[in-house]
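Retry 2 of 3 after timeout on previous attempt. Resubmitting structure tokens to design endpoint.
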């Protein structure tokens, strides 16, 4: 599991505690070596040897203090050295036990949190494609979980506040732990096509209704992913090629698409499902103020039977179960989403034309 910010601070504090304990032992040995060197006149090596014997409570053997001052210093040093060693051992054990408890508590809390997830998204793999997907999801209000086992990527995601499950995404138990049975959608973004096929196959078996999008590194992997159960397959190399062709032959169109993708125009595409209770049901587009008041362009309507109306005219009637593909400002799209869901939303702002 990934660590929360509190857990990371606890681990950092424990590491510092261990470092302080080790430093205390080293300083004590160094202090004793200097004392024996000055009082007994031994060599640095012999002084260090006797000092280490004293601190570690091994005892004296071939070298013992011969002078009165040396024995007084040895007595004081033995008492202090034992105290330093006990402190070091206590601090180290305490830090290790606390770290283990923090890790265990963090895992249990994360597991409980994931077990309560519903209608969320799962991202398998946070590589070049997955990381961009994660950043896109961070800009939305969607709940999602990332399954990733690379420690560096896990650390980067944790710093962004992403919920990360440190597991192998190809394992069934990993998908179950991420709540695949209750997930709304899954993205298979692993770098290997065979792994993505296995993830899609397993996820589809565990949740037949879930929407699955898979990444294909090679073009020939697309039909295999579809057969495995993916609803959509994205091939970054093919998309990149099409985008470069457009940038070369139609630069103005590419600039427009790039502006929408980068949100420079503060516009967004959205899909809005029309509920049976929506006030929009049964009305023609020309009878609504979707365009004039909300400043939203409906570029496509997908009927419940799969029929698609591209650039629908004002005479197109909105029906229950329609999926409206619209482009507009985020705030306006949210208002239209409310109107598409519930007739009660019409009390705030009616979308019907008054003329």
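Retry 2 succeeded. Sequence:
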């Amino acid at each position: 599991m990934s660590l929360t910010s509190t857990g990371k601070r606890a681990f950092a504090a424990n590491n510092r505690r261990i470092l302080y304990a080790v430093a205390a032992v080293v300083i004590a040995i160094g202090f004793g070596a200097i004392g024996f060197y000055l009082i007994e006149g031994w060599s640095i090596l012999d002084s260090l040897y006797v000092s280490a014997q004293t601190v570690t409570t091994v005892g004296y053997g071939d070298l013992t203090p011969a002078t009165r001052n040396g024995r007084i210093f040895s007595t004081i040093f033995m008492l202090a050295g034992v105290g330093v060693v006990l402190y070091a051992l206590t601090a180290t054990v305490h830090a290790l036990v606390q770290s283990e408890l923090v890790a265990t508590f963090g895992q249990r809390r994360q597991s409980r949190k994931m077990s309560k997830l519903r209608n969320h998204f799962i991202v398998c793999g946070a590589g070049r494609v997955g990381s961009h997907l994660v950043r896109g999801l961070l800009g939305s209000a969607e709940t999602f979980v990332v399954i990733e086992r690379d420690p560096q990527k896990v650390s980067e995601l944790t710093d962004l506040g992403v919920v990360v499950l440190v597991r192998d995404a190809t394992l069934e138990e990993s998908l179950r732990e991420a709540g695949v049975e209750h997930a709304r959608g899954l993205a298979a973004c692993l770098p290997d096509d065979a792994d993505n096929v296995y993830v899609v196959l397993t996820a589809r078996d565990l949740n037949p209704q879930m929407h699955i999008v898979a990444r294909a590194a090679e073009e020939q992997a697309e039909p295999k992913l579809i057969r495995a159960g993916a609803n959509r397959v994205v091939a970054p190399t093919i998309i990149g090629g099409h985008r470069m062709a457009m940038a070369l032959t139609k630069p103005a169109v590419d600039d427009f698409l790039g502006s929408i993708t980068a949100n420079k125009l503060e516009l967004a595409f959205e899909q809005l499902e029309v509920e049976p209770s929506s006030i929009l049901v049964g009305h023609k587009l020309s009878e609504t103020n979707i365009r004039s008041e909300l400043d939203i362009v409906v570029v496509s309507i997908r009927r419940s039977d799969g029929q698609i109306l591209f650039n629908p005219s004002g005479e197109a009637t909105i029906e229950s179960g329609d999926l409206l593909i619209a482009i507009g400002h985020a705030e306006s799209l949210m208002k239209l989403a409310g109107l598409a869901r519930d007739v009660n939303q019409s009390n705030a702002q009616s979308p019907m034309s008054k003329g």
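Attempt log closed. Strands lie at 121-124, 144-147, 164-165, 185-188, 211-215, 232-234, 268-273, 297-302, 308-310, 323-328.
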